[in-house]
Amino acid sequence: MSSNANRTTPLGLRIAAIAGLLFLHLPLALIFLYAFTTEEKSFEFPPPGLTTKWFETAWTSRPDIWPPLYLSLQVAAIATVLALIFGTLAAAALSRTRFFGRETISLLFVLPIALPGIITGIALRSAFDIMSIPFSVWTIILGHATFCIVVVYNNAVARFRRLNGNLVEASMDLGANAFQTFRHVILPQIGTALLAGGMLAFALSFDEVIVTTFTAGQQTTLPIWMLGELIRPRQRPVTNVVAVFVFVVTLLPILAAYYLTREGEHTGGSSK
Amino acid sequence: MTAAVAERQRGIGSAISDVFFVRPQLLTFLLLTPPLLWIGVVYIGSLFALLLQSFYSLDDFSGLVVHEFTLSTYKQLFEASNAQIILRTVTMAALVTVTSAIIAFPIAYYAARYARGWSKALFYLAVMMPLWSSYLVKVYAWKLILAKEGIITWFANVLHLRWLLDGILALPVVGGPSLSFSYLGTFLVFVYIWLPYMILPTQAALERVPVNFIEASSDLGADPRQTFRTVIFPLALPGIVAGSIFTFSLTLGDYIIPQIVGNSRLMIGQAVYTLQGTAGNIPLAAAFTVVPMLIMAVYLWMAKRMGAFDVL
User: Fold this and answer.
1) Is B121 part of any domain?
2) B91 shares a domain with B20
3) CB atoms A146 and B43 under 8 Å
4) Which residues in chain A are contacts of B27 at CB distance < 8 A?
């Protein structure tokens, strides 16, 4: 450890690492800059002038933004709740015992994010076709919940693995039944992991576009609205205003999730 | 009275608990059934339905799907235009993967071996934030950057390098009218979007390289370069392979990025999207999706053999 801290960082490595991080972050800054440009027909750089009027325009005179926003919030909320229930059940079952086929089942639960989204999308769509299920809010939710389960499962399974089995046994020895043990011993320990998983699932669903284009039919979620604006732009800075909003809405849960899981993961990492 | 109710409820709860205690498998079964049904029926069921459709064919005259078992749809995949789409996509995925690995390694190496305390947290957040922030917003940012009137052209003019930019755009395959309508543009966006997926597993693998291995290597007379080549890199390789699963798979299936930043020549994802949508040729679209599935199955099998799953 101490020999590590005393070593000086090679200059080349430092430059490559910092350049890499700048590559990851500078493009996002442009989204903010272009939300203030006075030029609405092209992406001229540098912007000819700066204005805040697009925020007002987006708020007051673009009614086409609101219904997609409500739909996205509704879908993300329901998909997150479903994912929390199913993801936690799966994590609890797979972490508490070892049985034949356990590895296969855990692979099954990560498959929806391991395979490209377009496969999930077209598979669901053809299944809806075959069973003549009409597109609705629920077809979107069905798709979103399927990959949100994975996110919650991943978060929960990591915490369940660290759960101290002695505490559960102590609880049982002291006369608590399975439900009381879950409520008073297990839940307080996995709570933050579930909250973090739920927040990540919400961010993922709120932002999802690939699977959604297949399961939405004629409905428009906020990402689908944005995709439309990208292909047929009008008032480009308004799209930037919405992009800034989407960025913030997805970023806040991510930071919160990081904050919630931070301590555990860090002590885990440093003890290795 | 309430005490009696509470007592009885506790009694039922305890009775159920006793059953679970005697038969722990029953509890596992009860916990596992609902999520397994969801993934099994909704997801795997849909995948099989899709796979089934790829064995049907489209009647060229009526435009309707013929529900008879045939391999003719798969034969169409080998026609020149379709085979080219597959080759183009796989080449793109391979190049994106290699480039991401090269850019990711210094970041992962620095974060794993030099960053401590607050700078470590900062590095982690600096990778997590772009990973999780909105996909469409990130693609949109690149539309702004690569536009003909955008920041790259401006920079080229300021640095008197316009000739270089025009020279690159004039290149036969990778160039185009502007960066946002070229393969080079598509490639840049793919690398940008999937880079964090490469950094995290590489960093995880590097963090597991024991410090005393490195000390032993230098004690035995290896210079830092040899230590890197013979000790650190081989141990980091499973992490890079784990990251490449994501960069490769995500590039194979994406159809939004080449649609927004790219030229008119299709990638697998776009082909699937147009075939199932406007063309109504679900069988061929389904057959096309089998290609990334097969490639990823082989890829995952090889990755598992290299121990990449331990890093995930």
Assistant:
1) yes
2) no
3) yes
4) 96, 178
- Write out pLDDT tens, residues B284-297: 999 999 998 888 88
In a domain, B68, yes or no: no
Rounded to the nearest angstrom, the minimum Cα separation between B38 and chain A is 8
Interface of B with A in 7-26 (CB under 8 A): 10, 13-14, 16-17, 20-21, 24-25
What is the predicted pLDDT for the residue at B38?
84
Same domain, B45 and B115: no
B150 and chain A in contact, CB less than 8 A: yes
Decide if B289 contacts B272 (C-beta within 8 A).
yes
Residues of A in contact with B248 (CB under 8 A): none
* B149 class by beta-carbon count within 10 Å (0-12 exposed, 13-18 middle, 19+ buried): middle
- Whether residue A189 contacts residue A148, with contact meaning beta carbons closer than 8 Å, is answered with no
Q: Does B55 touch chain A (CB under 8 A)?
A: no
pLDDT, tens digit, 9 for 90 and up, residues B64-78: 788 888 888 898 888
**Residue pLDDT, tens place only, A206-243:** 989 989 999 988 899 999 998 988 888 888 888 889 88
Considering only CB atoms, which chain B residues are within 8 Å of A153? 35
pLDDT digits over A15-42, tens only? 998 899 999 988 888 888 888 888 877 7
Residues 6+ apart with CB under 8 A from B271: B82, B85, B285, B288
Residue A78 Cα to chain centre, angstroms: 14
> How many domains does the structure of chain B reveal?
2
Range of the domain at B36: 2-53
Reported ipTM: the value is: 0.81
Q: How far apart are the first and last CA of chain B?
A: 54
In a domain, B278, yes or no: yes
| Tens-digit pLDDT profile for residues A97-111 | 677 777 777 778 778
For chain A, the first-to-last Cα distance in angstroms comes to: 11
Check pLDDT > 60 for residue B7. no
User: Cβ contacts (< 8 Å) between B126 and chain A: which residues?
Assistant: 21, 24-25
Token duo for residue A188:
């307080």
Maximum mean pLDDT: which of A132-136, B96-100, B106-110, B234-238: B96-100
Taking only the tens place, the pLDDT of each residue in B19-50 is 777 777 788 888 888 888 888 888 888 888 88
CA gap B67, B52 in Å, rounded:
10
Question: CA-CA distance, A240 to A220, in Å (whole number)?
Answer: 18
B248 and B166 fall within a common domain:
yes
Give yes or no for B60 touching A (CB within 8 A): no
Are both B8 and B144 inside the same structural domain?
no
In a domain, B290, yes or no: yes
For B:172-231, CB contacts with A below 8 A are: 192, 195-196, 207-208, 211, 215
Class of domain A64-270: mainly alpha
Q: Which residues in chain A are closer than 8 Å to B141, comparing Cβ atoms?
A: 27-28, 30-31
Sign of CA dihedral A118, A124, A126, A128: negative
Q: Which of A112, A114, A226 sits opposite B136 (nearest CB)?
A: A226
